[in-house]
Amino acid sequence: MEKKAIFFDIDGTIYSYDKGVIKDTGDAIRELRANGHLAFLCTGRTYPMVTDDIRNIGFDGVIAGGGTYIEFGNEVLFKKEIETDITNSVIECMRKNGIMPIPEGHKYLYFEMEDKIKSVYRKAYDTYMRSIPDRIRLIDMGEVRAAKVSGAFDDNSNIDSVIKEMEREFRYVIHNEKLLELIPRDYSKAEGIKLLINEIGIKWENTYAYGDSFNDLEMLKYVKHGVAMGNSHKDLFEMVEYRTGDYDKGGIRESLERFGLL
């Protein structure tokens, strides 16, 4: 069998803040690699946000930050960083529109002071403070070096104003009506996959991807076999070819077995 490359989103695909990584999913990915295939994370999270419980599953590489960082084995193949003045402009734009900025870098994740953390982001904030305290910095305590900028919002936030003001520099994705993700234009999970498979010599015909949200759509449509998790937004099902079970109900194993990869 030819070697395949399989790309996994994190949140809602192999992991949740409530349940972590489901054991069956971790075991399936390890089995996949034992069968000679390559498993990659392909996530909107930047590199420091990939916590150890996720890393410890074992992967051959990482595409992080929505395609702004690419790693294969122990080698960094590519990384993109936003110019500091643009990052500062995004931070101020979000603040004036009632959005809590969360700059995400290749080394650090940046937060506002504790008393400014929005309630809609509290669970994620507590998880990061507990699991990666050494990778967290305060926004106002020095230079912010970001690859992308997310923002937590609520009913009092003006996300349309931020999107309009930043549209020349960034494309955007809205997650669960509480998180705005700004990614530098010309970067995406799909572009990251394209660069990676060209670099390591994997045929496009041997590519698979798993995701659950609209920031996965380009990736799911680019690969040969794009699979939406059962817990995805229902509109996503109409846009991709394959569907599997929920992330916490064996969906990953079910699909890998169906493709004959396990």
List keywords for this structure.
Rossmann fold; 2 domains; eight-stranded mixed beta sheet; alpha/beta; 262 residues; 9 helices; 23% strand; Hypothetical Protein, Haloacid Dehalogenase-like Hydrolase, Chain: A, domain 2; single chain; four-stranded antiparallel beta sheet; 29% helix
Description:
The chain is of the alpha/beta class and 262 residues long. It has 2 domains: 5-80 and 187-258, 3-Layer(aba) Sandwich (Rossmann fold); 84-184, Hypothetical Protein, Haloacid Dehalogenase-like Hydrolase, Chain: A, domain 2 (2-Layer Sandwich), CATH 3.30.1240. It has 9 helices and 14 strands. Strand 7, helix 4 and strand 8 (136-138) form a beta-alpha-beta unit. Helix 1 runs parallel beside helix 9 (251-258). The radius of gyration is 18 Å and the shape is globular. The mean pLDDT is 94.
